[in-house]
Design brief:
Belongs to the FAD-binding oxidoreductase/transferase type 4 family. The chain has helices at 2-11, 21-24, 49-62, 114-122, 140-146, 153-156, 191-195, 230-243, 254-264, 285-298, 310-321, 323-330, 345-359, 385-405, 421-443, and strands at 17-18, 42-45, 66-69, 86-89, 96-100, 105-109, 126-127, 163-169, 175-179, 204-211, 213-214, 221-227, 248-253, 274-280, 303-307, 332-335, 338-339, 362-368, 373-380. It is an alpha+beta fold. Among the domains are: 96-214, Uridine Diphospho-n-acetylenolpyruvylglucosamine Reductase, domain 3; 217-325, Alpha-Beta Plaits (2-Layer Sandwich), CATH 3.30.70. Strands 12, 13, 14, 15, 16, 17, 18 and 19 form an 8-stranded antiparallel beta sheet that branches. A 5-stranded antiparallel beta sheet has the order 5-6-10-8-9. It is globular, with a radius of gyration of 22 Å.
């Protein structure tokens, strides 16, 4: 294989091919705490679509598995590498090719960090809505691969809702371009939406045409409400989405509140059973906020703090954004990612609490409550991972089973990756799996693209 790799090196500009165990360690896995990863054969640090095309053509000819990789911030093992795989890293493809204020689009490469898109668009009074909690470190390519959500998706939708077109390299190295720059377009199958969320199993996305939106005139108007029970918080969330259109609506349970306080000292009430954070934007932000606050008080909130100051709002939202860091500071996290109909969020919170108590493990739940998307996070003691890991997996499986029984899904935004392959079978069903396999076979007949991931 060394001779074969020499051929790949010749097909690439100098410095693009990475070999050697020490250098490849950084390319083996993503941020999922309990996933397993092998030793890659090599990594390609692509800077152009031609680099990606050369790498895939080489791998396709030799039937070498390929794992596409962005910043490695995923939480489902989607970038974990099997032994002998070729990693194709898009992290160096960082060009924002264009910001078009007239058509309200951005053309960006896969390695651009999410937050950089909105910063570039701000000059024109525009912004890019999808904002996963990792928005300051995760890349657009990874967001596209997993159809990432974020705090604002309750109003503006997930990543798929902000993508107009893609450039992607197929398994054999051919370059596919889908969609375009128009808001409407129904020619042929919707290949853009097919590739978004496919987790690198159908093609390697190298750039995208993203839909920007005008920055809201008015707001943000933000509140933080503390509740004495999970049921009261769940009732407030259900009530809010009936009377208002929040631009974000987040929830932290008591364990999350205390973990964040231990990690960052944000003056949260450690006795509160739940903290709900909400925000409204646009010309009616003040009225929307008043309606949301009234619902919280009627649901039994112990306290409600309001602000129309953007700086104060960011401090409030920091409690939510710091949650995963706080979990990592405490132990080894296993993050679950389920979603249920919003009317059943209080019931799901009760079930998560039950499963956590029965497992005997530390579990901390946060979530995009306005979407019914919750992230129960099991935190394993670093000196007892081997002992606690089987219980964590069993508990996570039970939570997925309960979510499905409520008409929900086993993953709302993190993707299936390697961690949820078994659980997704029940959700997709037999016919659904057959269709997935047929699509996969059509676009990747030799099965080299991110094998063992997604389904």
């Amino acid at each position: 294989m060394e001779r074969e790799l020499a051929g790949l090196a010749e097909a690439l500009p100098d410095g693009r091919l990475v070999t050697g165990a020490a250098s490849l360690e950084a390319y083996r896995r993503d941020r999922a705490g309990l996933s397993t990863a092998g030793v890659p054969l090599a990594a390609v640090r692509a800077r152009t679509v031609a680099d990606v095309s050369a790498a895939l053509a080489w791998a396709h000819e030799r039937r070498v598995p390929v794992v596409p990789r962005g910043a490695g911030t995923g939480l489902s093992g989607g970038a974990d590498t099997p032994d002998g795989a070729l990693v194709v890293s898009l992290a160096d493809m960082t060009a924002i090719r264009e910001i078009d204020p007239a058509d309200q689009v951005a053309v960006v490469e896969a390695g651009v960090v999410n937050a950089e898109v909105s910063r570039a668009a701000a000059e024109f009074g525009l912004f890019y809505p999808p904002d996963p909690s990792s928005f300051e470190i995760s890349t657009i390519g990874g967001n596209l691969a997993t159809n990432a959500g974020g705090l604002r998706c309750v109003k503006y939708g997930v990543t798929r809702d902000s993508v107009l077109g893609l450039e992607a390299v197929l398994a054999d190295g051919r370059v596919l371009r889908t969609g375009g720059r128009t808001v409407k377009g129904v020619a042929g199958y919707d290949l853009t939406r097919l590739l978004v969320g496919s987790e690198g199993t159908l093609g390697v996305i190298t750039s995208a045409v993203l839909r920007l939106r005008p920055r809201p005139r008015g707001g943000p108007a933000t509140f933080a409400a503390e509740f004495p029970t999970l049921e009261a918080a769940g009732a407030a969330v259900s009530g809010i989405v009936r009377v208002a259109r929040p631009s974000l609506l987040e929830l932290l349970d008591n364990m999350s509140i205390n973990l964040v306080e231990d990690h960052a000292r944000m003056d949260l009430d450690r006795a509160a059973e739940a903290l709900v954070l909400g925000q409204a934007d646009g010309p009616n932000a003040a009225e929307e906020l008043a309606a949301m606050v009234a619902v919280c008080r009627d649901a039994g909130a112990a306290s409600v703090v309001e602000t129309d100051d953007p700086a104060d709002a960011e401090l409030m939202l920091g409690a939510r954004r710091k949650h995963y860091e706080a979990c990592e500071a405490r132990g080894v996290p296993l993050v679950d990612d389920v979603a249920v109909p919003r009317s059943r969020i209080a019931e799901m919170l009760r079930e998560i609490d039950r499963v956590g108590r029965e497992s005997g493990l530390l579990v901390s739940t946060v979530g995009h409550a306005g979407d019914g998307n919750l992230h129960p996070t099991f935190i394993l003691r670093r000196d007892a991972v081997a002992e606690e890991e089987p219980r964590a997996w069993a508990a996570a499986e039970e939570i997925c089973r309960v979510a499905l029984s409520m008409g929900g899904t086993v993953t709302g935004e993190h993707g299936v990756g390697a961690l949820k392959r078994e659980w997704v079978r029940e959700e997709l069903g037999g016919v659904g799996l057959e269709v997935h396999r047929a699509v996969k076979a059509a676009l990747d007949p030799r099965g080299i693209l991110n094998p063992g991931k997604a389904f």
